[in-house]
Amino acid sequence: MSSPTIGVLAIQGDVREHAVALAEAGALARPVRKAEEFDDLDALVIPGGESTTMSKLALSFGLFEPLRARVKAGMPVYGSCAGMIMLADKILDGREDQETVGGIDMTVRRNAFGRQNQSFEADVDFAPTPDAPVHGVFIRAPWVESVGAGVEVLATLGAEPYAGRIVAVRQGNLVATSFHPELTGDRRVHAYFVDLVRDAV
Ligand code: GLN
Question: Which numeric CATH code is attached to 5-200?
């Protein structure tokens, strides 16, 4: 399949930027907000935004069960930032009633980089693109506190004070990054996901 159809969960967050990035990476991108719209997707992106709001809206729209079912069935999903939080089996510093879709055996800490450095940019060595680092835009970003045995770490930060912090992972068809590649003109992270989707369908 040359141009897979990839939905962007459009209940909150930077939907448009992901849709543009996906289209430039060779996919047919489509905003989705209802459970029945998930049926004919090859894959889904959960954008950056605010995971507590996303959780609330997903609950009230009844989206968690259909999303979990698609993840279980093997649909590829890529989550950036708040989307990473949504793919985590466990979260720290979440709201008490906050739910996630889950699927990646990891613990993610919300707003992990703290007040001093809520937003920053850094070059990230992203394993699938070894030719050159990707420019990571981190906005009140989470980090991955720990991963289970089945999770592949795709990127850790290199510079202090965050050296060694995990900021990109993959488990099966699920990919998550702490940073926002949709906000740069570099489409290599989205192209990596589109290739993964082509292999999966
Ligand atoms: N801090 C946000 C959250 O907890 C994530 C920020 C982002 O997606 N840029 O959901």
Answer: 3.40.50.880
